[in-house]
Each structure stands twice: as C-alpha cells, then as structure tokens.
C-alpha cells in the first residue's frame, strides 16, 4: 500500500500549494456526479419529447465543471498546464455528452 500513501501525500500537498481544500474539491467532484447524470437524463427526455432542453443542458454543463470552477476560483499559483488540462476535460465532456445525447435521441426516433 505504499503507492496509496505516496498518492495521498501528494494529493493533500496540492491543497497547500494551490490554496484549495482537496476534500472540498473531491467532495464537489464526487457529489456532482449523480446530479450530472440526472440532468443528462432530463436533457435527453426533453429532447425526445421535443421540448426546450436549454435549462437541463446548462445544468448538465454546470455539474460537469463544478469542481473545476472551484479550483479556478479558489486556487492560487496554479500552473498553466492545469488550465490546459481543464480546458481539454471540458471540451471532452462537451463532446462525449453531445455524443450520448445524439445516440439516445437517435435510438428514440428510429423506433
């Protein structure tokens, strides 16, 4: 279990170095997951029913980036590569979410 201790020490040291609480970041990250999937389901249902899906889509995006927003707002001295990584994660999240929505709504219209 030495690798776990190394990871834990590294993870906790990031809080001091970048002025964020790693437990808050982790809590936001994990806590947003069920809300992300609920809002994604709501978005898909609204699309299938041909209703406005703007609000549930915005919520889906907010839940996806919530932990990163905390990092960007509360963090200090964050290296440039972290901003780049967050950008890549957000772009990938948008891509994969749109792909899921298209697949789920396409399956519905093919019936």
Summarize the structure.
With about 110 residues, the chain is mainly alpha-helical.
Fold and architecture overview:
The structure is a single chain. By secondary structure, the chain is mainly alpha-helical. It has one domain. It is built from four helices and no strands. α3 (54-74) runs antiparallel to α4 (80-109). 13% of the residues are buried. The mean pLDDT is 86.
Number of strands: 0
- Low-pLDDT segments, ≥5 res: none
Q: Give the count of structural domains.
A: 1
What share of residues is helical? over 70%
Order of helices and strands: HHHH
Shape label: elongated
What separation lies between the terminal Cα atoms?
51 Å
Mean pLDDT: 86
How many helices? The count is 4
Q: Largest sheet at a glance? A: none
Question: How much is the radius of gyration in Å?
Answer: 17 Å
Provide the β-strand percentage band: under 5%
Report the structural category: mainly alpha
